[in-house]
Specification:
With 603 residues, the chain is of the alpha/beta class. 26% of the residues lie in helices and 9% in strands. Among the domains are: 62 residues, no CATH class; 341 residues, Alpha-Beta Barrel (TIM Barrel).
Length: 603
Amino acid sequence: MTQTLTISALVATISLSLSAHAQDSYSGTETDPGLTAFGNQIVDQNGNNVRLTGVNWSGFETPIGIVTGLYRAPSATSSPDFRDYLEKIKSLGFNCVRIPWSYDNMICELPAAADEKCNPNGVCKDSTCYSCPECADKSYIAGSYYNSENTDEQNASSVNQLTTSQFYGKPLNEPLFDTSLPRVAYAWQAKSPLKCMDEVIKYAGYIGLKVILDNHCIVSGGFASQPLWYTSEVTQQQWIDRWVILAEHYAEEANDPYHAVIACDLFNEPKMDPRSTTQPGSAWATAEGLTTAQVKQAWNLAAEACGKAILAKNSRLLIMVEGTQWANPSAVFPTGSGSANGNDYTNWGANLMGAAVAPIDLGVSYQNKLVYSIHDYPGTAQTLSGGDPLPWFKTTLYPNYPYNLADVAWQPFWGYLVENNTAPIFVGEFGSWLQNPNPLSCSDVTLSDDQVRSDKQWVNALLHYMQGDWNLAETINETPDSQAISVDVGGDKAKKGISFCWFGFTPNSNDTGGILDCDFSTTDDTKWNYIKPYLAPMLPSYQTALASDMNGDGFVRGEDMVIFLALWRLDTGGSRFSRGDFNHDGFRDGADLVMLLSRWRSE
């Protein structure tokens, strides 16, 4: 049927549509409700299974307040531009990236990436780092210097920073700098950490990558010593409020135009013994019969409150809840007996025994947004962190290693949730060197042949398990294999397997190294060959349809044209992500009209 609009209807539609979309916000609609949980799988809006297979890219949780690897010298084949790193992640076949961040960085309004010689304890601690030329000679973001005929500025640009990138034909990392701020030592200053994260997320979405936001710590760089999701200076409510602010922030089209952000990993690795009197750790507890002190340590209760608050503002998002380190099967506080037999504690954040008795409750409306998350690491990562390998890595205790891992290390703590088709699991971190690093590499790590062999068996076993080989019935090789691709994954139970993110992307971790070798450019094939056979396809993008469906009714038609024409030629303020600027060139013009018409009548 031909669609017509009267003049009065046109005016009414303009008025109503512009009023309804004044915030340019998508907090969850029928056209894009986001991903959901169904049984042990994550599914899209059409019920198709979705497997997230990504990589962790650190930095926003550290004192520099920006993703790592940006301060590098460009070469003929590599660039330290954040966009090139994201392109690399995509080219390797990952479909998502987990981005850790700290509470301190998200409330910071000063420029990110200050010289650590001036400000070693974290951003937002000393504003003089952003005004004294002697402290600003080395930003953590390359490319901040002008191209200029001025001799002094040319000399300033010689401080191991290049002004242009052959990859973009414009200054390196240009979107990360705030040109409204005064230059320091001829260099632009960076935007705040949050605004820098906005740019990373926008470009990730632009090329089709999805993003999991991970609150890694409260104090920047302090994740190892922070067992709880709050501190003496930051309350639980402040932590929840910050998550709500981020959820609202990324519900706005201007900040996440491609709907890249799909999940919130509420807190990284709740850990340590909750019975400690010196530094009480995180507990999993029932909701009844607790003392005030026990409630403050009950991670699952805090996660429920935070998840509900987030979903009330942005219902598109998945809520990822990690386990604790200590727990007992009945989830009754106090947790665990403290024995070292492997039945009471595991990796930080990997103990979900309590969920069997006290599962996370997000309410009837949002229970299908729940994904449990764990981290798993091999014996070398624990040794390099200064600890002892967990019991199941000791062949004196388990001569059938690595075939013991399913029964001892995974099923009791978290695997049962997947095997019983109860809930999806996201292995948010797993990683290893998988080799003895070259003496010329960026690490002085030295591993024995036995340690390397053990780690290789561990990673193959975990990859098989995540693919659905619950009992590790297939042969676990030391070399990379693709066996799990053909493993009988249990039919409807396993489907496409467990989602995961490798740790990490850049080679900054002394425990694991990175997917990128120490030159921040070359792929570490030792790691890559193990992971590659298990990667899932890219996730479909909702951006194309949603951008043109300006009134959110599921169709591109006359009402959307009305809204577009009302915005016609309005100044975008230079933003490449303004409503109606479909090609993101900073203007609403004929090119955008052509794109709108090309999607006309699409559903």
